[in-house]
Specification:
The chain is mostly helical. It contains 8 helices and no strands.
């Protein structure tokens, strides 16, 4: 098990970045990066996403000490972040859980990365369309 702060330091080191360079790349204050690496703080979802993108790893890898593969969940990270921005953290969490459940379909199989991406894009599109339809039907009336 590797804790969050160690994963950040290790990933930054593999990229050959200083804390300042990582901060600039992620759009996060250097002081914040230092607090993450020292284990003093854990980022909110938006900051976690920026940090993961800058490090080239998934948010799931950073937030789950038991995940050792930096690319685990990388293919769905952008979709989850898009939902978090549009709908909020609860909906993003729900989408992430749904996508994890569906990941079992691909386990041990020979499904290409392109096919996985197409599947996740289709699920994401359906999810957002359903949310919009519900908003139009049940949202506030003008």
């Amino acid at each position: 098990m590797i804790p969050f702060n160690e994963k950040v330091k290790e990933s930054r080191g593999k990229l050959g970045l200083s804390q300042k360079q990582l901060a600039d790349k992620a759009g996060i204050a250097v002081r914040t990066i230092v607090s993450y690496e020292s284990g003093e703080r854990f980022p909110y979802p938006a900051q976690l996403y920026k940090l993961a993108k800058a490090l080239g790893v998934s948010t799931e890898y950073l937030k789950n000490d038991e995940i050792e593969d930096p690319e685990y969940g990388l293919e769905r990270m952008d979709y989850v972040e898009e939902v978090r921005k549009k709908e909020g953290s609860k909906e993003a969490h729900d989408l992430e859980a749904m996508l994890k459940e569906n990941q079992a379909m691909f386990a041990g199989g020979s499904v290409s990365a392109e096919a996985k991406d197409a599947y996740f894009q289709a699920v994401m599109k359906a999810y957002l369309e359903c949310k919009e339809s519900a908003r139009e039907t049940f949202g506030r009336k003008k």
